[in-house]
Amino acid sequence: MVADALTRATGRLVQLVEIVTPGDRSLAPVAQLGVGVFVSALRDALADKEIDFAVHSYKDLPTAPMDGLVIAAIPERADARDVLIARDGLTLAELPAGSTIGTGAVRRIAQLHGLGLSLNTVPIRGNIDTRLRKVTDGELDAVVLARAGLVRLGRADEITETLDPMLMLPAPAQGALAVECRADDLDLIEALSVLDHRATRAAVTAERALLAALEAGCSAPVAGMAEVADDDDGGEEIYLRGAVFSEDGQQAVRLSRTGTLADAEQIGRLLAADLLELGADRLFGPTHVGSEDENVPGSAR
Ligand SMILES: NCc1[nH]cc(CCC(=O)O)c1CC(=O)O
User: Fold this and answer.
1) Which of 138, 187, 201, 206 is buried deepest, with most CB atoms within 10 A?
2) Catalytic annotation on 52?
3) How far apart, in whole angstroms, are the C-alpha atoms of residue 36 and residue 281?
4) Is the pTM of this model over 0.90?
């Protein structure tokens, strides 16, 4: 999709190089694989000049910036939300107590348990195909996935409910792509910039600033989603929601902030400070380490 968009906009031809990462290959919990499991192999290929730019799922990127590389474009994000794919077309509210839902992301686990519906969660790994098959085969009653991934693979028709962010706040940068290249490749940076989407960049900047600041201050699962909308004075404003959960989902702190697009980063940082003030750092035990998909901030997914 990114290659076609670049060719359409600039006439440049793009050769696709498929890189399978340890995160794709291993079925171990992402939390055990460490930071950057979906990203490092692509960054190595960039540094070695085997490729000129890489396309990542933005939420897989570690928050620390990478020396010598830049995110040259953040294309328009279609949908940041999580979805349910359940047997028999069921929605979350229709799933009977005791139903089993596949997800390894502690952000999703905490929010599912926090609903108080007596739903069980079980860890799940593997590609989308494998995960969906567990529902079709009857091994699981449902799985929770990012809508964007299913849409990209043309499998959105299998979604039984798109989860309102009030119930399931997505991961920071979920659904967005990062187009990364070498920082000294000025000609390519310029070409890729046509793919950049201003509102998406502002939203992702706010969400990632929130995540980075919370990583520094607490170890609990984090959710965050920013939206850009017209304000009352003919301008635009950014609306950032953030939440931090205890692992069992029984405790949560949630807050939001608005501001101008130019202040996106600061809005994220300020919201993190607000959440920490409310005790976000006290929601999680000290033993846990993890990552977004097995989802604790501080790591790649
Ligand atoms: N955590 C893994 C991951 N990283 C990116 C996506 C696809 C959606 C996206 O681009 O955010 C997924 C799968 C999922 O969460 O369902």
Assistant:
1) 206
2) no
3) 24
4) yes
